[in-house]
Amino acid sequence: MEKDIKFFTNGKRIDGRAIDELRNIKIEVGVFKRADGSSYIEWGGNKIYCAVYGPREAYPRFLQKSDRAILKCRYNMASFAVEERKRPGPSRRGVEIGKVTQGALEPALLLENFPKCMVEVNIEVIQADAGTRCAGITAASVALANAGIPMKELVPACAAGKVEDKIVLDLCKEEDNYGQADLPLALLPRRNEFSLLQMDGDLTEEQLEEALDLGRKGCLQVYEIQKEALKKKYITEDVLNE
Amino acid sequence: MEFLVKDRSIVTPGMAIAKGPFRYEYGVDKFGDTIISSVLGIVYIENDGVKVVPLEGKYMPKKGDDVIGTVVSINPLSWDLDINAPYFANLHVQDALRYVKDTSNLERIFKVGDVIYANVRDVGESSDIVLQSKERPYGKMKWGRVVKIHATRVPRVIGKKGSMIKLLKQMTKCEITVGQNGNIWIKGERQMEDIVERAILKIDKEAHIPGLTDRIKKILETELSR
């Protein structure tokens, strides 16, 4: 199977992108009425909703921290999100992604302002097309800002990878499934630190360095889109034209 | 000292606002020698300080605030009130009424679901909120209805020196009480209540766009002439 796919034609990738080009990203803010903050992201073929609740009293009680709030992240994929029906409900993969999402977002939040509270992040994948954890983190970060939770910075995320011994940005479905490596990253842009770094496949040391550099550039592009989306919600043209 | 954004522009968390030594109030954080925003909000730059007024977020109680809450549960000698804060607020019998004959059945005084106008007496170190409702304007709100808005937009409902609230009261002849936590209690004629509710929700939606009082006045005029 792997041999059948030709990843590059005339220097372009399968979906016509350049090596360091992201897929189309569209973020909407405040899509749910009942949630304190929410967002919707379309990243290539990924369609993800994110809802944030809180800060509110932490339950169960024993999880409460007397000096700060706790962050709970839940990642769930709809049964129709992938080609073959996914068995609904929590899975090993979902729990893992929830955990790494929490780890990626927590260093950016100022949770010490809300002792004994919890902040809940729900990520719901409606359609999956490679790189859902990065898209999920990106959307969650925007939803957290929309919920008014104080934070040091937004967290953009983006994947880098290796296909046919070339380092590429933001893998598409085929590259993810049949490529050589996948490296999801989440960046704290101001501090220039990564809060998420996973690797699937193998990279040499030089390739890893190269992928990190490329991933960082990708994250910074995503960061701009996040900021734009948040601002756009409040600059409503129809009101000004009235 | 140098500014990196314009006064009254919208900033997102992590955006650099100013460089250099600066007095800062709330909604901002320091990173090295730059001052960055920590919330999604609007920057206000004054001669010697910067602050970011958040556009979203829950109400954080301060001592002395007047709030409107609903009773959610009854304890042996106190009530728990939902005031849109991260925590429930506590109203003790001693602080509820000036004179209580019989504390055996608190349900006779305030039931679950009652709307109460109260004053924040104290906010503890671990953020427990203590209320009091002894004196005159405080107490149970009878009849009327409660409109919920974002706590961050309450100043807009009041307006500059109370201009907005005065406008609403004068034009609709409703009684309006505004809680700092974003709960607004309205009492008046049914249709007037409807009009006020719509106006308040519009204020909530368009709080950050200038020229609000004029717009609301226009809407009220057209609605009332119907």
From TrEMBL, chain A:
<dbReference type="GO" id="GO:0000175">
    <property type="term" value="F:3'-5'-RNA exonuclease activity"/>
</dbReference>
<comment type="similarity">
    <text>Belongs to the RNase PH family. Rrp41 subfamily.</text>
</comment>
<comment type="function">
    <text>Catalytic component of the exosome, which is a complex involved in RNA degradation. Has 3'-&gt;5' exoribonuclease activity. Can also synthesize heteromeric RNA-tails.</text>
</comment>
<dbReference type="GO" id="GO:0003723">
    <property type="term" value="F:RNA binding"/>
</dbReference>
<feature type="domain" description="Exoribonuclease phosphorolytic">
    <location>
        <begin position="21"/>
        <end position="150"/>
    </location>
</feature>
<dbReference type="InterPro" id="IPR036345">
    <property type="entry name" value="ExoRNase_PH_dom2_sf"/>
</dbReference>
<dbReference type="Pfam" id="PF03725">
    <property type="entry name" value="RNase_PH_C"/>
</dbReference>
<keyword id="KW-0271">Exosome</keyword>
<dbReference type="InterPro" id="IPR015847">
    <property type="entry name" value="ExoRNase_PH_dom2"/>
</dbReference>
<dbReference type="InterPro" id="IPR050080">
    <property type="entry name" value="RNase_PH"/>
</dbReference>
<dbReference type="GO" id="GO:0010467">
    <property type="term" value="P:gene expression"/>
</dbReference>
<dbReference type="GO" id="GO:0016075">
    <property type="term" value="P:rRNA catabolic process"/>
</dbReference>
<dbReference type="GO" id="GO:0000956">
    <property type="term" value="P:nuclear-transcribed mRNA catabolic process"/>
</dbReference>
<feature type="domain" description="Exoribonuclease phosphorolytic">
    <location>
        <begin position="156"/>
        <end position="218"/>
    </location>
</feature>
<dbReference type="InterPro" id="IPR011807">
    <property type="entry name" value="Rrp41"/>
</dbReference>
<comment type="subunit">
    <text>Component of the archaeal exosome complex. Forms a hexameric ring-like arrangement composed of 3 Rrp41-Rrp42 heterodimers. The hexameric ring associates with a trimer of Rrp4 and/or Csl4 subunits.</text>
</comment>
<keyword id="KW-0378">Hydrolase</keyword>
<dbReference type="Pfam" id="PF01138">
    <property type="entry name" value="RNase_PH"/>
</dbReference>
<keyword id="KW-0963">Cytoplasm</keyword>
<keyword id="KW-0269">Exonuclease</keyword>
<keyword id="KW-0540">Nuclease</keyword>
<comment type="function">
    <text>Catalytic component of the exosome, which is a complex involved in RNA degradation. Has 3'-&gt;5' exoribonuclease activity. Can also synthesize heteropolymeric RNA-tails.</text>
</comment>
TrEMBL record, chain B:
<protein>
    <recommendedName>
        <fullName>Exosome complex component Rrp4</fullName>
    </recommendedName>
</protein>
<dbReference type="GO" id="GO:0000178">
    <property type="term" value="C:exosome (RNase complex)"/>
</dbReference>
<comment type="similarity">
    <text>Belongs to the RRP4 family.</text>
</comment>
<dbReference type="GO" id="GO:0008143">
    <property type="term" value="F:poly(A) binding"/>
</dbReference>
<dbReference type="InterPro" id="IPR054371">
    <property type="entry name" value="RRP4_N"/>
</dbReference>
<dbReference type="InterPro" id="IPR026699">
    <property type="entry name" value="Exosome_RNA_bind1/RRP40/RRP4"/>
</dbReference>
<dbReference type="Pfam" id="PF15985">
    <property type="entry name" value="KH_6"/>
</dbReference>
<dbReference type="InterPro" id="IPR003029">
    <property type="entry name" value="S1_domain"/>
</dbReference>
<dbReference type="GO" id="GO:0034475">
    <property type="term" value="P:U4 snRNA 3'-end processing"/>
</dbReference>
<feature type="domain" description="K Homology">
    <location>
        <begin position="141"/>
        <end position="205"/>
    </location>
</feature>
<dbReference type="Pfam" id="PF22625">
    <property type="entry name" value="ECR1_N_2"/>
</dbReference>
<dbReference type="InterPro" id="IPR004087">
    <property type="entry name" value="KH_dom"/>
</dbReference>
<dbReference type="GO" id="GO:0005737">
    <property type="term" value="C:cytoplasm"/>
</dbReference>
<dbReference type="InterPro" id="IPR023474">
    <property type="entry name" value="Rrp4"/>
</dbReference>
<dbReference type="Pfam" id="PF21266">
    <property type="entry name" value="S1_RRP4"/>
</dbReference>
<dbReference type="InterPro" id="IPR004088">
    <property type="entry name" value="KH_dom_type_1"/>
</dbReference>
<dbReference type="GO" id="GO:0071034">
    <property type="term" value="P:CUT catabolic process"/>
</dbReference>
<feature type="domain" description="S1 motif">
    <location>
        <begin position="62"/>
        <end position="134"/>
    </location>
</feature>
<dbReference type="GO" id="GO:0000467">
    <property type="term" value="P:exonucleolytic trimming to generate mature 3'-end of 5.8S rRNA from tricistronic rRNA transcript (SSU-rRNA, 5.8S rRNA, LSU-rRNA)"/>
</dbReference>
<keyword id="KW-0963">Cytoplasm</keyword>
<keyword id="KW-0694">RNA-binding</keyword>
<dbReference type="InterPro" id="IPR012340">
    <property type="entry name" value="NA-bd_OB-fold"/>
</dbReference>
